[in-house]
Amino acid sequence: MTIDELWTTVEPPDDQETAEIRAERTRVREFLATALDRGLFEPRCDSWLGGFSPEFSRELATHGWVGMTWPRRYGGRAASNLLRQAVVEELLAAGAPVAAHWFADRQVGPGLLRHGTEEQRERLLPPMARGELHVAIGMSEPDSGSDLASVRTRADRVAEGWRVTGTKVWTSHAHRSHLMLALVRTTAPDPQARHAGLSQVLVDLSAPGVTVNPIPFLDGGHHFNEVVLDEVLVPDHMLVGAVGQGWTQVTAELAHERSGPERYLSTFPLLREMNAARSGDDAVDGVLGRIYARLWVLRQMSTGVARSIDAGVASPLVTALVKDMGTRLENDIVDESRRWRPSFPSLDAPDAYDRMLAQAQLHAPGLTLRGGTSEILRGLVARALGMR
Fold first, then answer.
1. Burial of 343 (0-12, 13-18, 19+ CB in 10 A)
2. What is the per-residue pLDDT across 258-310, written as a single tens digit (0 to 9) for each?
3. Are 18 and 125 in a shared domain?
4. Partners of residue 135 on adjacent β-strands
5. Does residue 307 belong to any structural domain of this protein?
6. pLDDT (tens digit per residue) in 9-48
7. Which domain holds residue 230?
8. How many domains does the chain have?
9. Considering only Cβ atoms within 10 Å of each terminal Cβ, which end of the chain, N or C, has fewer?
10. Is 252 domain-assigned?
11. In the listed set 72, 99, 133, which residue is the last one of a domain according to the structure?
């Protein structure tokens, strides 16, 4: 099976949707081929985090590929999550730079549709759908590990709205974003009800009191940040949802955050180069066969989640499994590539295989951490199965 043939194995529930999805895939592939010829991007691993190009995001938006599941009155296409999934797969498989609009498209926009006010939707969703408004996510904090319920960033009520003080960490592209959707504590912590008293606010990252400190990668790249908030004023109209409902709102986002193609396609451009360079090697064909089989299963699981999101019944168990199994596969692709062909990976190597391997190796430590560590996810699965 070739790489491209692999993408045609998912069968949506009815023939008409199958035709729609296949037509959209063809349209995306044709666009990407033209974009490559025009030099609009260079394929890379981990493109949904490392590939930040506002110009490319705006170009995608003109084709209707940003905010595509949102209602038309907010700039969307009212498309299904299944159709969006097909578009995202094609973009990530090609290593296209989608980071500029990623968080707005994946979870902030859907969150505003569920919990935001009509004024927020009308003001914020259309520029997001045009690829013009970039949003970061402020969840994790220093010294908290994966315990999101231990949030200490505080939002105190004042006459003008809320005064927010605290620190967020691992905040991708905060230095390039306009807003940050932050989880904050609006009431004093209660040891007996750790998930209570949390709320979500949209912080203007250009506001007084905001300091963004870079956290560079091993390769010198930079998308992670520490965001320090010192008495930052957040007006009332930037509160998202209800006060005290932040935990419920955040956990509702996890179906979008943990189950998408980004959880098994971050290292796919490297797999594509491995496939192209195999030259009939039986050993590598066996490795590729095992990887393809796992990838096919993950695509089926992820596609099932997309269908369940459309139906409003996404399972936290399945989303956790997709993320855990997917990021393990991504790391295995790096390991198998390194074993198969001795090379000197370098970000500046003339050979695409060596460049992709260098990118993948340098980003591999974060694959099983972001979006929930493997240990946390396996704990969720065990609890859902009644094992703890």
1. middle
2. 778 999 999 999 998 888 877 777 777 888 889 988 998 898 888 888 888 88
3. yes
4. 179
5. yes
6. 444 444 445 788 889 999 999 999 999 999 999 999 999 9
7. 137-244
8. 3
9. C
10. no
11. 133
Locus of tokens 């399945």 = 318
Site of tokens 């193609």: 261
Residue (of 325, 330, 319) closest to 93 by Cα position? 330
- Asked whether 347 and 284 are in contact (CB, 8 A), the reply is no
Over 90: is that where the pLDDT of 254 sits? no
Its pTM stands at 0.90
**What is the DSSP code string of 220-277?**
S---EEEEEEEEEEEEGGGEES-TT-HHHHHHHHHHHHHSSGGGT-TTHHHHHHHHHT
Tell me which of 133, 158, 188 is where a domain ends.
Answer: 133
- Of the candidates 162, 142, 160, the one whose C-alpha atom is nearest the C-alpha of residue 151 is 142
Do 43 and 114 share a domain, yes or no? yes
Residue 254 lies in a domain: no
DSSP class of residue 206? T
Q: Residue 290 is encoded by which pair of tokens?
A: 């095992």
Q: Which of 3-7, 10-14, 253-257, 316-320 has the highest mean pLDDT?
A: 316-320
Strands (DSSP E) found in the chain: 135-138, 154-158, 161-169, 179-185, 198-204, 210-215, 224-235, 239-240
Least confident of 74-78, 81-85, 152-156, 233-237: 81-85
In Å, how far are 61, 246, 278 from 294, measured between CA atoms? 32, 35, 19
Q: Which of 187, 186, 144 is nearest to 169 (CA)?
A: 144
